[in-house]
């Protein structure tokens, strides 16, 4: 799938951003075309090789209808309370790698609730921070709000 400048996309494990440019760069003697994506959260710029886009699971940001589903997921009860932390960690990592916003929302919900009730291991805390950033970056672009508003919305829905 080819994207254009101005498209809002999601890069799994990194978050959402807007394609600002398509540039050709020479890396290790090889010329390649790259999407230059600006991310609203962290104000980072990411370069994505065009020829690898389909393998990376890059997708367009969700629409407002899909956002409603995400908010519903965030407000639901968490699942799998009883599994060991390492199994839970692996399961959550697999969900994150899919780039599926619904899976990322489930990881955020479950880890936020778990943190509140029992605390998290260092690895799970890092995963939660990463998952929250990914979700917040997409909320910012879908709702056209700033990072602070997106963070507030996320916390409000999960903690309600």
Task: Give a verbal description of the structure.
The structure is a single chain. The chain is α+β, with helices and mostly antiparallel strands and 160 residues long. It folds into 2 domains: 53 residues, Thrombin, subunit H (Beta Barrel), CATH 2.40.10.170; 96 residues, Up-down Bundle (Methane Monooxygenase Hydroxylase, Chain G, domain 1). The protein is 52% helix and 21% strand. The chain contains 6 helices and 5 strands, in the order ββββαβααααα. A 5-stranded antiparallel sheet has the order 4-3-2-1-5. Strand 3 and strand 4 form a beta hairpin. It is globular, with a radius of gyration of 17 Å. The termini are far apart. The model has no long low-confidence stretch (mean pLDDT 91).
């Amino acid at each position: 799938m080819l994207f254009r400048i101005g498209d809002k996309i999601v890069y799994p494990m990194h978050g959402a951003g807007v394609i600002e440019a398509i540039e050709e760069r020479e890396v290790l003697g090889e010329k390649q075309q790259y999407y230059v994506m600006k991310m609203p959260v962290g104000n980072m710029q990411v370069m994505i090789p065009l020829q690898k886009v389909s393998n990376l699971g890059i997708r367009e940001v969700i629409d407002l209808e899909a956002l409603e589903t995400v908010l519903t997921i965030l407000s639901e009860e968490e699942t799998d309370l009883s599994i060991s932390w390492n199994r839970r960690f692996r399961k959550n990592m697999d969900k994150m790698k899919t780039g599926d916003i619904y899976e990322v929302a489930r990881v955020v919900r479950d880890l936020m609730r778990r943190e509140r009730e029992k605390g998290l291991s260092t690895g799970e805390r890092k995963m939660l921070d990463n998952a929250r950033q990914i979700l917040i970056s997409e909320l910012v672009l879908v709702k056209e709000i700033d990072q602070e508003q997106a963070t507030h919305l996320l916390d409000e829905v999960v903690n309600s």
